[in-house]
Structure formats: C-alpha cells, structure tokens
Amino acid sequence: MDLSSLGPESAPQTRSERWGPWATLAWGAGAAIVLVVSQTLGAVAFFVFTNGIARGVPIPTENLESNGAMLSAAILFSTPLVLAYFYLAVRLARVPFSEYMALNWPQWFDSIIGIGALIAVVVIAGLGATLTGQERPDFMSDTFRTARDAGVLPLFFFSFAVLAPVQEELFFRGFLYRGWSGSIGPWPTIALTSAMWSVVHLQYAWFFVGQIFVLGVLFGWLRFRSNSTILTMLLHGGMNALALVVAGASLP
C-alpha cells in the first residue's frame, strides 16, 4: 500500500510523542540519582579546592546543609550534568528538546496571571505564617550568611535564583509533566509532581513544605495553561531571588 496517498492524519506516526509513565518514572529516578551524586561530587570538590588554596585554614563541616558556599558550588557542578542527562532522555524519545520541555516564551497575559497569582500565594502564605506563629526558616538566612562570609554572594545568587530553578522546573514541570500528563491527566500530574517537589524541600518545617506544595500546584497550573516552563522558571527564580534578598536584609 502506498502511504503517500494517505492524508497526514491517516499515515502512521513514526515519532514518539513522549516517554510513557513508567519509562518517565525510571528516567526520573535516574535524574534524581544524577542530581544527588553530582551535587555530592561538587560539594567534595569544593572542600578539596578550598583546602588547596587556603592551607592551614580549617573548613567548618558542621551544618553542611546550610553552607551557602558549598551548596552554590554543588549546584553549579551538578547543573550541566543534569541537563545533559535530560537531553539524552529526550533525544532518545525522538522529540526536540525545546518541544519536550515546553521551552516556549509565554504570552504576556499568562505572564501577568502568573505574577499576580504568585504574589497572592506569597502574601496569603505570609499572613498564614504570621497568624499561626511560624518562625522564618533559618535555612535561607544561614546559607546567605555563610555565602557572604565566604565572599561568594554573586555565585550564591546565580546558583539559587537561576540554576536551581532551571533544574527543578525542567525536572518537575518539564520532563515529569510531559511524561505523565498524557496518561493520567494534567491535574493528577500537577498534584503528584507538586508532592514530589515539596518532599525535596524537607529541610523546612511542615508549614513551609505545605506552602511549597501549593506553589507547585500553581506552577503546574501555569505550565498547563501556558505550555511554558520558561514562565515557571522565571517565576521560580524571581521568588527565590526575593527570598534571598529578604534573608540578607534580616542579617546584621
């Protein structure tokens, strides 16, 4: 049979639209391993490097989870490896990377809605924290202080306001959303990826983990509405940058 005689909707599809749900889960688990291992290697490299250039000066190893300089180095080291991993996964799915990850510039109306919704969530969460007596998390102020003391504030801002949002949005609102939404639907996918994203932030108290879940739902909805992870990256990065500024302003 001559397939050229068929219309474009009749011809069999030869290109995969996405990885299926189980393959997406497997690739996602691999991405988590790459992320953890690469950040661990970046942290180790940081201590090796700093010891090498400042011999005789001890590197404090207590409270590593709030060492801003180390965390900045770990994120900087891990980002290209995580992106390369996702590029390989998408390439094997035979879909352009920008299409698979929804790297599309958002419409201005979606941007306005996203900014307004994010402001509303942040304000409501702030009021809720005040009314329930929640103390501001020490994580951001501690990491800001240690990065400032190490003289790496520009790298710290770049890592937390640019690189970390890029990694997380490509992971949760990009790769996982694309692989699951076609099988289980957008809203179950939004809820699932938001729950997974909030678990990544267990260094915070439960109130703030819940806040992160709500933000995940907002970002997932914006991803669904706008078909743009660029929008969620920009909002995520802006939110992180604001949190850093507030944390820095609270320090002596």
Give the SSE layout.
Elements (H helix, E strand, L loop, with lengths): L20 H33 L14 H25 L4 H4 L7 H24 L6 H13 L2 H32 L1 H14 L6 H21 L2 H21 L3
Polypeptide structure, described:
The protein is mainly alpha-helical and 252 residues long. It has one domain (18-249). The chain has nine helices and no strands. It has helices at 21-53, 68-92, 97-100, 108-131, 138-150, 153-184, 186-199, 206-226, 229-249. Helix 7 (186-199) packs antiparallel against helix 8 (206-226). The protein starts with 20 loop residues before the first helix and ends with a helix. Residues 1-15 have low confidence and may be disordered.
Question: How would you summarize this macromolecular structure in one to three sentences?
Answer:
The protein has 252 residues and is an all-alpha fold. The protein has helices at 21-53, 68-92, 97-100, 108-131, 138-150, 153-184, 186-199, 206-226, 229-249.
Task: Provide tags for this entry.
disordered N terminus; 252 residues; globular; mainly alpha
Helix content estimate = over 70%
Number of strands: 0
Integer tally of domains: 1
Rg over CA atoms = 20 Å
Query: Cα distance, first to last residue?
Result: 78 Å
Q: Which overall shape is indicated by the principal axes computed on the Cα atoms?
A: globular
- Averaging pLDDT over every residue, what do you get? 87
- SSE-based structural type: mainly alpha
Strand content: under 5%
How can the largest sheet be summarized?
Answer: none
Helix/strand order, N-terminal first? HHHHHHHHH
Number of DSSP helical runs: 9
Question: Low-confidence runs (pLDDT<50, min 5 residues)?
Answer: 1-15
